[in-house]
Amino acid sequence: MAVLNETEIWFGCTNGKIHHINGAELNHHTTEVTAIAVSPDGAYLASGDTNRYVLLWNAKDNTLLFDNWVYHTSRVTCMDWSPDSSRLLSGGIDCTLIIWDVDGSSRK
């Protein structure tokens, strides 16, 4: 579950869908959503799954921004944001941490 405030609550499901408390549903994962995080500024939603994918969404209009962030070698288990919402950190069972720039320019 990812919570920004009392109206911005997202949760991932075993069927690969992501739900918002207002009824919105995001569909792109094909396996269980195992990690989810809302950026501090509320602009982005990041999600990770059992198939190693990290996806970046526009949290305002629910559009998918990036779906090709696949550098973990196993399940994504956690994620968190930099305070300025410009970078996302993802971690996996593979014991790696990856830092993603939200503009898609780089990963570390």
Major beta sheet summary: 4 strands, antiparallel
**What is the terminal separation in angstroms?**
25 Å
| Uncertain stretches | none
List the domain count as a whole number: 1
Content of β-strand: over 45%
Q: Indicate the overall shape.
A: globular
Q: Tell me, rounded to a whole number, the average pLDDT.
A: 89
Rg, Cα atoms, Å: 12 Å
Q: How many strand units?
A: 11
Number of helices: 0
CATH topology: Lipocalin
> How does the helix and strand content classify structurally?
mainly beta
CATH architecture: Beta Barrel
Q: For the largest beta sheet, what order do the strands appear in spatially?
A: 1-2-3-4
Question: Class in CATH?
Answer: Mainly Beta
Helix content: under 10%
Write down the secondary-structure element order: EEEEEEEEEEE
